[in-house]
């Protein structure tokens, strides 16, 4: 018996030692993820991380839920300066130049090893890559990306005598229908606004929809020059301000980003503009028949893209970079991209994701996600420059000054352009 036990003991000891070596050699990646992006998604991220670990036993993923997008980049840059940067992060695509300037990220081109890797980088929608590539390099990989879409309450359209299947197609129709949809009580107080476009949180992003529809882009592709005081930009802001002050179909002053979906649920707004990332939230909570459509056109249709990209920290070991590349590739496979889009409402980031059986089944039952995908043909890159936080703050301040009536649209945008010129002069 003793002679039999000795080999078993040695085998157990050997297995234990092997397990200890495997555990010691496992690569652990910290993964910063912004939670304030349109609904509770931490359970989904936790589930995806666990599934990845099951497929890749030698890699551990440690999700860190880092607050809003603004909180996340602040924490990432602070951690980078302290030498403790998270290995992988989801940060706004528009923060690409800032992350490059801070020497915080490594281009994916330096992690590419195979033709399959190169094909993967080329597999995403070109519209999403406009905020992911610069200088001939790919710095970010699209993950939770979006466009702005229009949601409308079909019941309120019926009550106003409007065709519930036909949302406004033009700026003029938005005003005309907005008048019919705006309701007031006996005292003259508005109970339902015809149109609501949020102007807190990401005012520059919503504004960029108006400017794109008016035929002008807010910045150059190099991120060194803005066009805030262009006549077509001023005209676009005048239209937005007039929805409230002149046409009285839109709430006055600053409209909160976070409460806009709730206002829609509570019938306080008949039409809203917000991210397609709110689609699942609205589908789950709207107790009425609603529609989803492309934004109405001014001179043309248009929307900026939006949302977050994957980035990999520069201060990483070769093993960590290899593991990070595997993680980002796994998270953006067509099957995972489809799963993520179905769960959240964000746009599936590659054409192949729309060809998966899961996505085909989903849109056959609920075709609304196709709106954001099809609108990509009219999409432009989201406002992104060097010193992006400071430049967008200058524009956001100007927008809110104009919408509250503190400044005229022209003065507000001239002031914003003057500040942007001062900030960007060093980069030209």
Describe this structure in words.
- There is one protein chain.
- The chain has helices spanning 2-25, 42-55, 69-81, 96-101, 115-121, 126-129, 154-159, 171-181, 203-213, 231-245, 260-265, 279-285, 318-331, 334-344, 351-354, 357-365, 369-375, 388-403, 409-424; strands at residues 27-33, 59-65, 88-92, 133-134, 137-138, 141-153, 183-184, 190-196, 269-275, 290-293, 303-312, 379-380.
- The protein has 428 residues and is α/β, with parallel strands linked by helices.
- The protein folds into two domains: 16-146 and 306-369, Periplasmic binding protein-like II (D-Maltodextrin-Binding Protein, domain 2, 3-Layer(aba) Sandwich), CATH 3.40.190; 148-304 and 381-427, Periplasmic binding protein-like II (D-Maltodextrin-Binding Protein, domain 2), CATH 3.40.190.10.
- The strands form two sheets. Strands 1, 2, 3, 6, 7, 8, 9, 10, 11 and 12 form a ten-stranded mixed beta sheet that branches. A two-stranded antiparallel sheet has the order 4-5.
- Strand 4 and strand 5 (137-138) form a beta hairpin.
- It is globular.
- The termini are far apart.
- The model is unreliable at 1-24 (pLDDT under 50).
Notable characteristics:
disordered N terminus, D-Maltodextrin-Binding Protein, domain 2, alpha/beta, 47% helix, single chain, two-stranded antiparallel ribbon, 10-stranded mixed beta sheet, 2 domains
